[in-house]
Amino acid sequence: IGFYDLICEITMNGQSIGKRARNIKVAKLDGSQPTLSSYLLRWMLRLVDFTITSGAGAILSILFTSTGQRLGDLAAGTTVIKIGQNVSITDTILTRIEDDYQPTYPQVHQLTDEDAAIIKEVLNTAPRLPDAKTRRLVIRKAAEQIAQKMGLAPDLAPEMFLDTVLKDYNHYNGTVE
């Protein structure tokens, strides 16, 4: 089982069974097929990405690198890409909000679409982390970064703050019908 991902990615063109089901695969940053050494380096750094840090290393590196890569991908020059993708609202930064929604933070104008995407990714991913302490840390760190960028000290719990900021961002920048 320890070699499952490595063997699958090498023999299945950058995919495992789970990646194939999700229509994603590992590719070099230039879009080419990774080399054996790329797969091996990526696999070896899973220890840091997931085991040693309980997944926090992977999530934090994905959230705070401009390319959204985990440590293994950064070292190997690889990334995970979607193939044959169908786009839905959950794949975008858009969030459904009520028609009469009243925004809380007008400072969201200082955020970019990338910031909103990071917030949405944290809110969608952190609850699935196995360790409660890691979940709280990831959410708190993301909330601190966003609050700092907006130049404010939030008066809400970190998860509620991020949820409110995302709704406010959508209020000002477009919503889903």
Topology:
Elements: H1 4-11, H2 17-21, E1 24-28, H3 36-44, H4 46-52, H5 56-64, H6 71-76, E2 78-82, H7 113-125, H8 132-150, H9 158-173
Antiparallel strand pairs: 1-2
Considering the chains and any ligands shown, give keywords for the structure:
two-stranded antiparallel ribbon; 177 residues; 9 helices; mainly alpha; 52% helix; 2 domains; 2 strands
Strand content: 5-15%
Q: What shape does the CA trace take?
A: elongated
**Main sheet specs:** 2 strands, antiparallel
Give the termini separation: 45 Å
How many helical elements?
9
Which whole number gives the mean pLDDT?
87
Secondary-structure element order, N to C:
HHEHHHHEHHH
Spatial ordering of strands, largest sheet: 1-2
How many structural domains are formed by the residues? 2
- Give the fraction of residues assigned to helices: 40-55%
Number of strands: 2
Contiguous runs where pLDDT drops below 50 for at least 5 residues? none
Structural class by sheet pairing and helices = mainly alpha
Computed Rg: 18 Å
Can you characterise this structure?
By secondary structure, this protein is mainly alpha-helical. It folds into two domains: 79 residues, no CATH class; 85 residues, no CATH class. 52% of the residues lie in helices and 6% in strands. The protein contains nine helices and two strands; from the N terminus they run H-H-E-H-H-H-H-E-H-H-H. The chain has a two-stranded antiparallel ribbon with strand order 1-2. Helix 7 packs antiparallel against helix 8. The protein is elongated. The model has no long low-confidence stretch (mean pLDDT 87).
